[in-house]
Request: fold
Amino acid sequence: MKDFKEKFDAIIIGSGIGGLVTASQLAAKGARVLVLEKYIIPGGSGGSFTRKGYTFDVGASMIFGFGKKGYTNLLTRALRDVNENCETIPDPVQLEYHLPNNLNISVDREYEKFISKLAKLFPHEKEGIEKFYGTCEKVFNCLDSMPLLSIEDINYLYKVFFKAPLACLGLARWLPVNAGDVARKFIKDPELLKFIDIECFCWSVMPALKTPMINAGMVFTDRHVGGINYPKGGVGKIAEKLVSGIERLGSKIRYKANVTEILLKDGIAFGVKLSNGEELHADIIVSNSTRWDTFGLNENKKGLIKKEYVPKSEYRWSETYKPSPSFVSIHLGVTKDVIDNEFNCHHIIVENWDELEDEKGVIFISIPTLLDSSLAPEGKHIIHAFTPSSIDEWENLSREEYLIKKEIYYSFLIKKITKIIPNLDKNIDHKEIGTPRTHKKFLGRFEGSYGPIPKKKLLGLLPMPFNTTKIKNLYCVGDSCFPGQGLNAVAFSGYACAHKIGSKLKINSINLPD
Reply:
């Protein structure tokens, strides 16, 4: 039996991408890290699972951060830092939208092509379209011109400022601003503003007025610069490669290790307790769980920190943010002939603008086998579709009621998908149905949520907490931290967390990243 009592510099709870980037960055700096994962595979919602010859992505397959140049390609950089690399397949189209009033448009990798198509649909708003997306490009250029990998470290920020002063000042301008405010400055057409809403909602799960401009600037430009690039072999390859790099550098990951408590002494974190009663100690503890799960920010939820030690600042955070809805998702194996080879990989269906934020108001569809046929048996395709759903819809059901409701949602999704993929129902080879309860159980996420969203309109990214907590030696990482949801965003969170810990351990390089 392996001895897990060996000394580690840091223990990281959870192997989501944020936790793995933190671990890989610390390992690359020379620290020894132990990652504890309660499930049997790494990656969380950025993982993959196999069934009957199919490799299904747990979450979305529309991946940012895999470009080749600049500082915003954090997944590429994170893998490179631990001597790993993911082969990727470029997607010529980010998304195809199927919207009310027959508003259909695809977002091409080529920027001018997309802007031209959108301007043809809204010719009276051509100037406003160019100004809004042009402003997004300015924000992106600020981000992409400097190695901004920590917001908390003042000394590091000074170095970044002296390297790129204009970019820093430009970026600071947009920190308190939301994308919807910028859109309304340039655009008046209500339907075009609704389109900007779904452009934001498809990755932030928020309309434009609640989506930080910095996040929007990154996404709306990076899709044309770095592009959407799918990791060959499935999204789970990212986590697998990070784990390989972490282990090669002498750190470890342990599966089926369910952390039930973060241990404190005199208000200082010093270890964790597992569900089997085992205790593991380290000088640094990092939680990749949501802040709700970490601090028990719900009267009915026991957190990893005992109630009497939860900082008041965490309760204030929970008064400002709420969990976004979870999803009902279906993973299908289908006959290849049912999908045309020229069909786009990613689609969104919205039938009523007024239902955008409602239960089942949006349907997301991805067909990753159009990019990587190796994910399915020969002659088959994968369809992954999901729609927002609240945990409240799924709690307190009997087993029979639960199974019936799953089939109702499954039929709803099949009916909607059939509008763009005819005869789908007659060509299904395999199906998996997941609910908010599934996501809560297997991903260990509060209410199965995708991440935090503001309860009301806030000042851009300014209210988002950083990695440091009020509990000494305890850090948080992931989508409950600056800058929020999405694989590239949580990768940034991992970089920032590792930098802050690296400063404490005195293992950071004195030089800025190349």
Summary: The radius of gyration is 22 Å. Residues 163 and 283 are 33 Å apart (CA to CA).
